[in-house]
């Protein structure tokens, strides 16, 4: 699917502000915008540490509605209205990501359609970039490589991609992830090279939204590792995963489990069964915690792969017993 078609398909629900008149309309100003931004930052920090899920998704939807209520019912300058659209888009994109993280993909699709429209109305390159890269992740989870590629390319068309090398690094790494499924491994490698080049040029002290705090060099290595795993180069994938896990912050529990699960898959692809099981065990959510939906899904893929590669082996039997234990 071409990007233009994908964009058109994603903007089916058009939200429009209704102009209300009357002296009773409350004035919406910078303080209202800042309160919403603080709430958004808190959501991003929670997602970065623990991952998404229904609770975070519900909070993000409620806050998006709050931003739109201010937009619809308040009196505000055009600059404030643009920021409210941007905040509503960012909250909705966060809800989309939380639904993706818990693998509620139909709900995520509905959030994405609203987020794309709101981001367009906001005119803010940062929120447009965020929305399109989340859309690429959603398409990837749904097994739609052409849509994932179209969304990744849409993120690269935003103003912030052209202006800030850190955003460009994230765009190129997201593009690299989509290209193996689209059948273009050579372009995937070139995109990874550009991602690392852009990351090296980025100013680490430039002020950016908290939604970019996760994107460290360690995270870039993690995305590179997944790309190499998809390119069926598991030794290089494992190398990048090791660099990723070394660099992650201690509080990034969700990301650590996610990349450990991918490293286990890379080790499995090299027939290093015992080490792969040891690594996968470290990704199992703690007892009493369901974890995010993507990690159990990856562990299930690991179990399937292990039983296909080492059927009936002692290692596989031991892992199957462990995986069945609640």
Describe this entry's structure for a reader.
The protein has 326 residues and is mainly α. It folds into three domains: 1-8 and 32-156, no CATH class; 164-242; 249-326. The chain contains 16 helices and no strands. The protein has helices at residues 3-10, 30-50, 54-73, 78-101, 105-122, 125-141, 145-156, 159-163, 165-178, 185-201, 217-230, 234-247, 253-269, 273-283, 294-309, 314-324. Helix 1 (3-10) crosses helix 7. It is globular, with a radius of gyration of 21 Å. 47% of the residues are buried.
The number of distinct β-strands equals 0
Strand content: under 5%
Structural class: mainly alpha
Number of helices: 16
Q: Mind telling me the C-alpha Rg?
A: 21 Å
Poorly predicted tracts of residues: 1-22
Briefly, what is this?
With 326 residues, this protein is mostly helical.
Key features of this structure:
73% helix, 16 helices, mainly alpha, globular, 326 residues, 3 domains, 0% strand
